[in-house]
Amino acid sequence: MTERSAFDPMLLPESNATSYPEPHRAANQRRWNRRPGDHAGLTHFGVNVTRIEPGGQSSHRHAHSRQDEFVYVLQGEVDLETNSGSEVLRAGMCAGFPAGSGNAHRFVNRSAEDVLLLVAGDRTAGDEITYPDIDMHGRMQPDGTYRFFHKDGTPF
Q: Which fold has domain 19-124?
């Protein structure tokens, strides 16, 4: 990949693709990602601009075993749901989720306007993702993708 030192991330294509299996995929079709970190050729951590439509969510509530996540609200008002409950974040506010903390989180847009988040996270190998509210568990594969299982260990 060619090094790209300056560009407008909002001109990158958006995708609402998710690797979540059904029946958990549909709930995430109202969030869109642009991937400026990939565009810049970054390999050790990811940087995304996530747009959540009204009524949408960033993901199912989840926690990473080995990867840190940082989220900065660029635009709008969004509900952050964690193990401690729900709180409203507005543009200029941020939240961090250290690897292994077990603090499951997601962002839900209950407003009438789109929300924009800047999301950064590392790509540490061997990560596992727990989803306390749904019957799903994710395991990172050697190629960096996730494979999903039911909580009893059977694959989707």
A: Jelly Rolls (2.60.120)
